[in-house]
Design brief:
By secondary structure, the chain is mainly beta. The chain contains 1 helix and 26 strands. 4% of the residues lie in helices and 47% in strands. The strands form 7 sheets. A 5-stranded parallel beta sheet has the order 5-10-15-19-23, with no helix packed on it. Strands 6-11-16-20-24 form a 5-stranded parallel beta sheet, with no helix packed on it.
Length: 168
């Protein structure tokens, strides 16, 4: 369980005053997962530039199951490179070859995705998830070869659900 606020900002000035960048992924429980994240809850505000999630920032071939996000998720840096395909979501920012099951987002995700920002690769699955938090996209903003199965979102809190071709 996380009650703390988490902020990752990868931009800084080096000793010569030049702009530099380091990874700015963040998550309420962990920022990168290769394993199982289960029965966790986030209440804190989570900030980052890309791959930002209320529970996990970047889920690579991992399983996220029975988690809840009540916290606010914020993208704290905005340019076209990070806006398009690097995912901001209530549960996970970016999921590659991973699975998200039985999860709930009730946090404010603002202009991004209630459950997952970017669901990538043919065996990535989002199943039995619900978003009741404020989000532009109820379930997912971008899907590339992944699947969304039996997921629901509150119409009054979201503009749209996910790309239609990804529902099964």
């Amino acid at each position: 369980m996380n009650y703390a606020n988490v902020s990752a900002n990868g931009y800084y000035k080096d000793i010569l005053g030049n702009d530099q960048f380091r990874s700015a992924q963040s998550g309420g429980i962990c920022f990168v997962s290769y394993g199982i994240v289960e029965k966790c809850t986030n209440y804190g505000t989570i900030e980052g530039a890309y791959s930002v999630g209320g529970i996990v920032g970047y889920n690579y071939a991992g399983i996220i199951n029975y988690v809840i996000n009540y916290g606010k998720v914020v993208q704290n840096y905005s340019d076209n490179l990070y806006n398009d395909y690097k995912g901001i979501g209530g549960i996970a920012g970016y999921c590659q070859c991973g699975k998200i099951y039985n999860s709930l987002n009730a946090g404010d995700i603002g202009n991004r995705s209630g459950i997952i920002g970017y669901n990538y690769y043919y065996d990535s699955i989002v199943k039995n998830c619900v978003n009741v938090g404020k989000a532009r996209f109820g379930i997912c903003e971008h899907v590339a070869e992944g699947y969304i199965v039996d997921c629901y979102y509150l119409n009054s809190a979201s503009e749209t659900g996910a790309p239609e071709s990804q529902y099964t």
